[in-house]
Amino acid sequence: MPTDSPENDWKSAKFQAGLPTMVKNAGDHLKDDGSNYADWEYRVTRLIETVTGRENYLDDSEAHLRDLRGDRVIFSIIDLLVPADIGRRLSGSAQSAMTTIWSLFFFPSCTAHIAAWKEAQDNKLTEDMDIGTYLRKMDMKAMDLEQARFKWTKDSVLGMWYQLGLPSGYANVSMVLNTRLRSQPDQPVSAREVEEAIRAKSQEHGSMSTTTLANFNAIDLNATQMPITGNRRPFCNSIAPNPTDTASHISGAPIRSPMSQLTYTHTFQQLNAIDHHLTPASNIGGASQRRILPRVADLDHCLCCGHTGHWARACPYNQSTGPNLGNRQMRLNLVDVNGTKFTAEVLPDSTVTTDNDALPDGIWALEGNLTEAWDNPDEGVSDTGATHNVTGDMTRLTNIRMLTRPIPVSVATKGPKAYVTHLGTMHLQEDDGSPIPIHNTFYSPAAQRTLLSLPELVELGGSWNVYGKDMVLKAPCGKIVSAKYKDRRWVVPVINTSMFSTLSEPVTPSHGVALSHPPKESQPIRVNTASMGTP
């Protein structure tokens, strides 16, 4: 087809005008699920070779630099052979477009790859099966994977093995990996990323299975006397009748007077302490009638902060100063705790963002601060331009949960966008060594370091000040963190969550930094950002 005549010149305007009709008649269209990708790639490669008169055109990474006009024609051919939803994702050169399309369907969590692996795993050698048949079946599965462009490397195989035994509750793992790969198609998903996604989902499942009320942070347990039902009544010969009993009592109705309700408020962090405050009521019937009741003498302090003089409902660490959340209470009756039934009143936690709360549409950060690796993972870089706290290391977070929708991270360049996929709590190290939890810290697999957003700290009631090369961060609760000057940046110590077991004092709400709800009295200290030296 390519000749010197203007009619057949594949770069001419006339040829491009008839390009849609020619492509429609010559090529196979890619399906939405990518099930025909192997055949589609073969057809589109042959079509490009026929049009250009060159072999292996898509393998030349410099083709778009030498012939920009011709590369745009090839890009148009590819764009016409894919669905509109996929076409919107394509940009750059023709080779970049093919790489993006390939990344949408072929990676360690690809459905077709996982299905082929499971089929090969289910192929067993039986007594009545010929050994040659068994080996041919396994060889065919390997050929199917090779045709599906599966990369036979240790990293890709390990990433596949990690996912073979996952239950249906871990379906979001594949979605997270898919989102990351679409944002950075040139970087294949590694086994480490698969492992981190599985661990994050496992931690989310663990926090949900601790209690049926794990989506909330505070409950009111109203202890009530549990009536004796028919299947819990003791045998008649185990109870000696009282001479003062009336006929109705002797006939089987147990003697019990109504108790006044004792109301306690606990946070989930204190639920384990309930076991130490419960004791059997020794003045109730026989052994089969004994019930576990709270002792008021052991509950004379606030279970939220540990101080006396008020209950947890009036604790200043349990008060919400944010916008009106409306009537979001829920009544759950007959919650069984250690054999005792309680009535539970569930209140939403004002310091933890839920899926129903407004999440940002996007997060902004400097690309150098986000993507360049930092030599010390125990240091977080303070950033005057970052809109939110971001980390690329899940070991720096607790209370991790997966977002229902990934949030894009815009950087200062026009490169591919990164995404944040999880939300958790980061812990800074105070000058005295105690941890300060920073809520609503986002996790992005593309981040190579931890960013502490100074604008967010100031807007939420904290402050920061600079004295020469010394910076002092003041949290809304008054705790102080000293930052040191390093490589034209101020860095702050960030605690690895594995170190919590070695801390000298436990993490209590008195050390908390409720960044979501700062005190109204705190005023930010304004500092000229030009003196910060942030690149």
Q: Which structural traits does this protein have?
A:
zinc-finger, five-stranded mixed β-sheet, 535 residues, alpha+beta, six-stranded mixed β-sheet, 17 strands, disordered C terminus
Question: What does this entry look like structurally?
Answer:
It is a single chain. Mean pLDDT is 65; it is low at 211-298, 320-357 and 501-535. This protein is 28% helix and 19% strand. Helix 5 runs parallel beside helix 7 (94-105) and helix 11 crosses helix 12. A hairpin with a 2-residue loop joins strand 5 (330-337) and strand 6. It has four domains: 13-105, no CATH class; 111-209; 218-234 and 261-347, no CATH class; 363-532, no CATH class. The protein is globular, with a radius of gyration of 32 Å. It has 535 residues and is an alpha+beta fold. The strands form four sheets. The chain has a six-stranded mixed β-sheet.
Mean pLDDT: 65
In the sheet with the most strands, the strands line up as 13-8-17-16-15-14
- The tally of helices reads 15
Main sheet record: 6 strands, mixed
Outline: globular
Question: Which SSEs are present, and which pair or pack?
Answer:
Layout: H1 13-17, H2 19-26, H3 37-52, H4 63-66, H5 68-80, H6 84-87, H7 94-105, H8 111-122, H9 131-147, H10 154-164, H11 171-183, H12 191-209, E1 218-223, H13 247-250, E2 262-267, E3 278-280, E4 292-294, E5 330-337, E6 340-347, E7 363-364, H14 367-371, E8 379-383, E9 390-391, E10 397-410, E11 418-429, E12 435-443, E13 450-453, H15 454-459, E14 463-467, E15 470-474, E16 480-486, E17 489-493
Parallel strand pairs: 7-10, 8-13, 9-12
Antiparallel strand pairs: 1-2, 1-6, 3-4, 5-6, 8-17, 10-11, 11-12, 14-15, 15-16, 16-17
